[in-house]
């Protein structure tokens, strides 16, 4: 469920094909996101999942899978 919702957010904010969005996809290398894209993504994730995304956490999120794990751990924590 988290992955599907995150996929919708990425599709909405980044100009990528749905097939490119996998758990292994790197935001910068594979999805061509720049720092502004990542900032906006994290803001949207924060709003959509009602979680706080600290700047220090962003440094540890490089792939879609990392983001899913972060969101799930926050929701389950």
Instruction: State the helicity in percent bands.
Output: 55-70%
Unreliable segments of 5+ consecutive residues: none
Radius of gyration: 11 Å
* Overall pLDDT metric: 94
The helix/strand class is mainly alpha
For the record, give the distance between the C-alpha atoms at the N and C termini, rounded to a whole number.
17 Å
What does this structure look like?
It is a single chain. The chain is mainly α. The protein is built from four helices and no strands. The longest helix is centred in the middle third of the chain and has 15 residues, at 35-49. The protein is globular, with a radius of gyration of 11 Å. The mean pLDDT is 94.
Chart the SSEs and their pairings:
Elements: H1 2-13, H2 35-49, H3 55-58, H4 64-76
Helix pairs in contact: 1-2
Describe the structure using short key phrases.
77 residues; mainly alpha; globular
């Amino acid at each position: 469920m988290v992955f599907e919702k995150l996929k919708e957010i990425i599709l909405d904010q980044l100009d990528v094909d749905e097939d490119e969005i996998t758990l292994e996809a790197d935001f910068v290398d594979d999805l061509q996101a720049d720092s502004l894209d990542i900032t906006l993504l994290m803001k949207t994730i924060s709003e959509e999942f009602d979680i706080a995304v600290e700047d220090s956490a962003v440094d540890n999120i490089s792939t879609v899978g990392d983001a899913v794990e972060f969101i799930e751990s926050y929701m389950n924590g």
